[in-house]
Amino acid sequence: MLEVDNAAEPLAEVETERGRMTVARVAAGILHSSASGVLEPPVADALIPILEAEIAAGHPDFEHFMDWRHVTGYASEVRVRLTAWAMSASAPYPRLHILVANRMVHMGVSAAALALALAGRHLASYTSAAAFDAELARHATG
User: Fold this and answer.
1) 100 neighbors 73 (Cβ within 8 angstroms)
2) Residue 49: pLDDT above 90?
3) CATH code of 66's domain
4) How many domains does the chain have?
5) Residue 19 in contact with residue 38, Cβ under 8 Å?
């Protein structure tokens, strides 16, 4: 497993009363975010500009790995805003990977993945931490 905390460049940390998210760059064009609790709108407020900056940097193989295994819920506005951003993001569009454990969060991610797939976008969801970590390590170590 890739030790994200030791290899990463911190980009943001957001904490609300009910949840927390950190974002880091683990390699050129590879972002990793980790979240826990209930995600609220400040998460989207922090994440979207970081994703936009990575797109502006022009990494052709931009990947974002979202470790949401400890997310227990989210405000619907977070899902709506992140999905809307993903639908309208400019090229090079990032390949998104998300690890979830909570069943309700997984249902929301599945719905977003379907909408994104219909628009030609990529969102891979994982329920296996080992599979998610292996894919992250594969991209981060080249």
Assistant:
1) no
2) yes
3) 3.30.750.24
4) 1
5) yes
